[in-house]
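Weekly sync, protein design subgroup
Attendees: M.S., D.O., the rotation student, P.L. (late)

Item 1: inverse folding check
M.S. brought a backbone from last month's batch and wanted to see whether the design step gives back something sensible before we order anything. D.O. pointed out we never logged the input encoding, so this time it goes straight into the notes. Structure tokens as presented (632 positions):
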């Protein structure tokens, strides 16, 4: 557990030559998988390791397509096993084993063979191999094949012969169940990833379990889908050999952006995305002859940019953010020139954009006036934000020597009762608390002016550090922690509505979560008393005699195990769970449900249905789906 302390009084082991270890590359991957694939997980989050393993294999097939070889990729996911078959050049047979098992080995170092590739460091398939309980790779070339099979990175068979198969490569792997506990691939996450590949590689056919994913117009198709009927004008699209971008506007708040490098979705953006936004701003100002601010142009904008780069520098092996600084100038200039040219050729669209930007400017002026009126409140919380119990460290901080860095999180709790339980149980180094005073404002249809007039949301925005830019978010995870009753669910929906309305990028980038706490405790009271008497510790006895259940199915299974002796407690509120009990639910085994969006195109309709004015349709939906538990 994170709160366990090391006994510094114990004598350290002897530091001799025997203490020095040398690990093979694959052993190191298995010992420190997070260095290579980020998070582990069980598939409940779109960035969990099993999806990164699939991505690493598909990336190699995409690289073949980028080089003009192979216009089809077949992907099969069944019973936890993934098979990827491309029709590219095929891995050279003589180097097949080395390419998937020896670190820093691959063809991506040779710019003549792979001019633009996602894989760069010779790590990807090696990590998949090492983290799979079974891994098989087969290459087909000129009527011959070679097949190598591995188990957890260890070669178990190597065969070759003649074949009638078309040239290409096939990889089949099953993630190691000892590392990825109870994992399962979610179809909606797989669909989202494959669609992104299709949008970035127009003309490529990808088949997932027999279903075709294909885009003819690339990023233009993506933005048409994401903006739906809400876009104010047809998507502006541009494409050349090195750069592709598309943009449009809606009447929504905030901005949405998608960025890619060599076919790789860079979830956290980077210098190419910043340059794209800079180019759009410069184009609008040049065309209009005015000096609009960035927010004036970007509020309501949906944009996407994709570049091809010979030597991309990513901030991690998972390639979520581009770090190359030398691309900024040429991307910004290319975008500026293309957008200015489009505006001159399409004066009707130009007028719609300038009207939208003008309305944004007026709105931001009103917001600034409201902010000035709120200076007194801001001054009060400049040193201490009310209802915030902050943690010691934040993203980017250097942790003290001897402590293990963690992802930071802030719990948004329902009142002081729940906050009290969490405060006594939390790990103060990296867990913060913000206590709500009750049901917050329903932000559906609200303006940003209303946001800054609402004191509680104003304080929350300052606590999160996102007033000016989502890049300044002070925590890795924003966790909604409400009671598991009707009021708690309502508050949860109100908070999600708030973030989707004003800070959608926080959700899109995977920072918003819901804390799952047990709904039931099933125990044998006599067993607890016996354990207490035997060990003199209620905590020790409870650990043996209590079952904490997150669903009715788990409750029924625990009750059946204990029989008639079972005592069932229904937790209606977080405040009902004692701090000693609560500690285990927010520790290393914390259960967090990510708030994710398969697509943003349905968000306005969903918010309108659930959070807008009452309608007969919503009443009928509630009456049809309402269920009542006998344990309430």
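Designed sequence read out in the meeting:
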């Amino acid at each position: 557990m994170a709160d366990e302390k090391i006994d510094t009084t114990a004598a350290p082991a002897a530091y001799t030559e025997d203490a020095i270890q040398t690990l093979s590359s694959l052993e190191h991957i298995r010992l420190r998988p997070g260095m290579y694939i980020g998070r582990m997980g069980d598939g409940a989050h779109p960035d969990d390791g099993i999806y990164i393993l699939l991505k690493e294999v598909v990336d190699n097939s995409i690289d073949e397509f980028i080089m003009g070889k192979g216009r089809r990729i077949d992907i099969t996911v069944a019973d936890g096993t993934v098979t990827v078959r491309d029709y590219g050049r095929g891995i050279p047979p003589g180097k097949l084993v080395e390419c998937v098992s020896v670190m820093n080995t691959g063809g991506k170092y040779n710019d003549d063979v792979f001019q633009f590739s996602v894989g760069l460091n010779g790590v990807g398939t090696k990590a998949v191999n090492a983290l799979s309980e079974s891994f098989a790779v087969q290459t087909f070339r000129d009527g011959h094949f070679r097949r190598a099979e591995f188990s957890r990175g260890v070669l178990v068979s190597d065969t070759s012969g003649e074949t009638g198969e078309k040239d290409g490569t096939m990889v089949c792997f099953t993630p190691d169940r000892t590392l990825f506990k109870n994992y399962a691939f979610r179809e909606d996450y797989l669909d989202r990833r494959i669609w992104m590949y299709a949008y970035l590689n127009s003309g490529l056919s990808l088949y997932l379990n027999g279903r075709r994913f294909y885009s003819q117009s690339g990023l233009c198709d993506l933005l048409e889908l994401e903006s739906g009927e809400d876009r104010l004008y047809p998507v502006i699209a541009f494409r050349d050999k090195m750069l592709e971008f598309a943009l449009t506007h809606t009447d929504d708040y905030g901005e949405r952006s998608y960025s890619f490098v060599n076919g790789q979705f860079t979830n956290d953006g980077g210098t190419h995305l910043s340059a794209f936004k800079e180019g759009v701003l410069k184009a609008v100002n040049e065309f209009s002859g005015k000096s609009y601010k960035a927010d004036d142009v970007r509020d309501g904008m949906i944009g996407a940019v994709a570049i091809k780069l010979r030597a991309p520098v990513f901030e991690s092996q998972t390639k979520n953010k581009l770090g190359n600084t030398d691309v900024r100038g040429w991307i910004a200039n290319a975008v500026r020139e293309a957008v200015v040219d489009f505006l001159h050729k399409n004066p009707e669209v130009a007028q719609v954009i300038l009207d939208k930007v003008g309305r944004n400017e007026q709105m931001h002026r009103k917001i600034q006036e409201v902010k000035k009126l709120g200076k007194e409140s801001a001054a009060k919380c400049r040193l201490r934000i009310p209802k915030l119990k902050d943690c010691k460290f934040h993203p980017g901080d250097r942790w003290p020597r001897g402590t293990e860095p963690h992802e930071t999180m802030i719990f948004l709790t329902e009142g002081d009762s729940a906050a009290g339980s969490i405060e006594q149980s939390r790990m103060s180094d990296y867990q913060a608390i913000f206590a709500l005073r009750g049901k917050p404002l329903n932000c559906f249809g609200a303006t940003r002016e209303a946001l800054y007039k609402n004191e509680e949301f104003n304080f929350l925005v300052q606590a999160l550090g996102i007033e000016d830019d989502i890049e300044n978010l002070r925590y890795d995870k924003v966790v909604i922690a409400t009671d598991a009753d009707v009021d708690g669910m309502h508050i949860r929906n109100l908070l999600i509505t708030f973030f989707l309305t004003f800070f959608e990028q926080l959700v899109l980038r995977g920072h918003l979560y819901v804390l799952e706490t047990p709904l039931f405790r099933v125990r044998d009271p006599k067993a607890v008393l016996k354990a207490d008497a035997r060990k003199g510790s209620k905590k020790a006895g409870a650990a043996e005699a209590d079952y904490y259940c997150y669903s009715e199915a788990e409750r029924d299974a625990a009750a059946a195990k204990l029989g008639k002796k079972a005592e069932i407690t229904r937790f209606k509120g977080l405040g009902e769970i004692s701090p000693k009990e609560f500690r285990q639910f927010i520790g290393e085994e914390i259960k967090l449900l990510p708030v994710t969006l398969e697509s943003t195109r349905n968000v306005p309709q969903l918010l309108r249905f659930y959070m807008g004015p009452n309608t007969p349709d919503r009443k009928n939906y509630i009456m049809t789906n309402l269920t009542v538990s006998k344990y309430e």
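Discussion: Residues 1-6, 107-122, 536-543, 628-632 have pLDDT under 50 and may be disordered. The chain has 23 helices and 22 strands.
Action: P.L. to compare against the previous round before Friday.
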